[in-house]
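Reviewers of the previous submission asked for a worked example of the structure-prediction workflow described in the proposal, so we include one complete record here. The input consisted solely of the amino acid sequence. No template or homolog information was supplied to the procedure at any stage.
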Amino acid sequence: MLKQYRNFINGRFVESEKRFAGINPATGVRFADVHEATKDMVNDAVEAGHRAVRDWGATSVADRADMLYRIADEIDRRAADFLDAEVSDTGKPVSLASKLDIPRGAANFRVFADILKTAPLDSYRTDLPGGAQAINYAVRKPLGVVGIISPWNLPLLLFTWKIAPALACGNAVVAKPSEETPGTATLLAEVMQAVGLPSGVFNLVHGFGPNSAGEFITKHPRVNAITFTGESKTGTAIMHAAAEGVKPVSFELGGKNAAIIFADCDFDKTVDGMARAVFLNSGQVCLCSERIFIERPIYERFVKALAERAKQLKLGDPTDPATEMGPLISAAHRDKVLTYYAIARQEGAQFVVGGGTPRFDNHLDSGCWVEPTLIAGLPDDARCVREEIFGPIGHVTPFDSEAEVIQRANATPYGLAATIWTSDVNKAHRVAQSMNVGIAWVNTWFLRDLRTPFGGSGLSGVGREGGMHSLNFYSELTNVCIHVDAPDAFHD
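From that input alone, the workflow returned the following structure tokens.
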């Protein structure tokens, strides 16, 4: 029996005559029917959101925070269901999804509930001539209906990363998960229904981009803001659509992130960290390091050690707790990554490790697998060094000086993240502050405090999310200015 992933509009699940397949990428087997939303369904969702936001936006901060806590608790209660859906949709190992994706899905609601309760607002007093005053204070109000479009690589984590602050600020949402990963989004709709979130506050629509739910959301005249995580090319198309109504946008897009490894690093710790930074989630994390710069004195030794880690990674059944790396998200994405492997060969790359597809001699051979791969020997302007691949591949190259590696690392149209490994604290600060990125890690990778700003520059995005940055994006701030007359000097 195929699972049925339906749309959720105005508090109820809605079927569609038009459906598409949910495919398990580990096996290539269809396991679900996904109900594609029509244009009328998206319109119904937007209108339901506008009706709902009048009351939801007027609720107290305490009541909204309490609702977010209840949502988080219900995700925790159904953690096993969410884990099963996430693994079926993505093929990622349970060892990863159980520790990262599902806990963060719940944590996002708790964090933004906590931030909302203590969120400051501007307040100023201005002294005027003659003893009068002006009292200014800001009021936070919802934007209205927010369109949310999220990606397939960290489905629940990134979906809730946008939904939680949007709801915290009193908005209604019309949210579209990736067509590749509808499962946890549909479970989240069940959670919203179970905890009693008012009808119309959370609306879920399934579908694709052009001429489907994605386009219907971004071009809808009654959607008040749009937030998107995904490919830079798609972000450009959405920005064009948003410009028509001068809508606020928040985009977290692609990256071609650099890792800078100095000879004075803690060698073993850095190898461990870079194995994660290159291969976590099969390289399908926008923050993964695809360009690895290694100071020449340790270059050969480091490349050899990192290649050994790649060889040791256990690929296999995602439901096996011992599995460390799963498949790519789809056959189409696997073919894209393998095309880049072919381009690397044409460009003259040396394949240090990997470069093909693994064989299991069982049902997994029908899945979307590629080998963890390291390449070397390409110039900085090679396609495989400049273009985002989004797979388990990194290009290793030596460098000779701090100034050289800063220039080379910044020579990219992307500006999302960097990771720097050194035991010299002064060098760490200098290089981190020189990176043209939204986040620069030192002696770590993928470590996040959810209160801090997150986002990229250039082709990596527009705006910042996290903490107060998210609350301010999802709010309309109104300044109230009150003139206070000077006291009557003759009044007794």
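The chain has two domains: 3-253+460-479, 257-442. We consider this example representative of the routine output the project will generate in years two and three.
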